[in-house]
Design brief:
The chain is an alpha/beta fold. The chain has helices at 3-21, 30-37, 43-50, 58-67, 74-85, 91-94, 100-111, 131-145, 151-161, 179-182, 188-201, 248-262, 268-283; strands spanning 88-90, 115-120, 171-177, 207-212, 226-229, 233-237, 241-245. It folds into two domains: 3-85, 434 Repressor (Amino-terminal Domain), CATH 1.10.260; 90-283, Endonuclease Chain A (Endonuclease, Chain A, 2-Layer Sandwich), CATH 3.30.870. Helix content is 51%, strand content 12%. The longest helix has 19 residues, at 3-21.
């Protein structure tokens, strides 16, 4: 978990503690507050929220403010929560209604972006995925996160976003590690069709597609996938959450990482050869 995120969570917890201690009818202990809050509340939960070990829900902030006699504090608490949630977007919260709303949110970022810089270490980027490949990715992620399945709606949203690949004035600077070409997150025939799709987009004026081969010497380890929107925002994906970062230092760091990885990449005919080799390995009945 990021230091900035944890510090923000602890700051919110401190505000909650101060409300408990400043209750108009006398300070409350954690156990007393839990009893006042009712079902689902325990002394342990109160402690975790106050010490930044658990993230509060908006409704929990509302009832906390009311139970401590400070209903007017709710708006400020909610603003604090929204402030750091806008940077650390947990999958549990994002996927509460399925993958389609997540796709819609990222589409809004795409629409205002002219230069999108992408690094992927183990998956074909969503901007280049076939519908069948995307379908398997969404299904497996929904299973892992135990989230509602709206697979077909999510696939349609992702595929519609790819229309911007054909819009003049946009640039997609995409780098992939060779592992992304060979990872069997779908059946072999689906991956084969996906690799064919990659070779077909290499000729687009808007796409700069590079591959870092397994045999390339790396100046930095592959790390997580990330997307830099112009030089305005970077989105980093992890197992628990997406990080949406807009501070200049973070953006500069990720662009530096991308440029370092690019030094090990191949383009054009050489990239085509790496993709073709992965495709031939599939037709021989093995992942390579």
């Amino acid at each position: 978990m990021s230091t900035d995120y944890q510090q923000a969570r602890e700051a919110l917890g401190l505000q909650l503690r101060e409300l408990r201690l400043a209750c108009p009818d006398g300070r409350l202990t954690g156990a007393q507050l839990a009893e006042r809050l009712g079902a689902g509340w325990t002394k342990s939960k109160v402690s975790k929220l106050e010490n930044g070990r658990q993230t509060a829900e908006a409704e929990e902030l509302r009832v906390w403010a009311e139970a401590t006699g400070h209903p007017e504090a709710y708006d400020g608490l909610l603003a604090q929560l929204r402030g750091f949630e806008s940077r650390i977007r947990s999958w549990r919260r994002q996927l509460a209604s399925g993958h389609k709303p997540v796709q819609d949110a990222i589409t809004a970022e795409h629409e205002r972006t002219r230069i999108l810089t992408i690094w992927e270490n183990n998956l074909v980027p969503g901007m280049l995925q076939t519908a069948d490949y995307a379908r398997h990715v969404f299904t497996r992620h929904a299973d892992l996160m135990r989230s509602p399945r709206d697979t077909e709606a999510a696939v349609r949203a992702r595929i519609r976003r790819q229309e911007s690949l054909y819009e003049p004035g946009r640039t997609y600077r995409i780098l992939m590690w060779e592992a992304a070409l060979r990872t069997l997150v779908c059946p072999s025939p689906v991956l084969a069709a996906q690799l064919d799709r990659l070779t077909s987009v290499m000729g687009l004026d808007t796409v700069e597609l590079g591959v870092v081969p397994f045999t390339a010497a790396l100046k930095i380890y592959p790390g997580n996938g990330f997307w830099v929107y112009d030089e305005r925002r970077v989105v980093v994906e992890d197992w628990h959450a997406e990080l949406w970062l807009d501070d200049s230092d973070s953006i500069a760091t990720y662009l530096r990482v991308w440029n370092t990885l690019k030094e090990s990449a191949v383009y054009g005919t050489e990239a085509h050869d790496v993709i073709t080799a992965a495709r031939h390995a599939l037709t021989r009945g093995r992942p390579g």
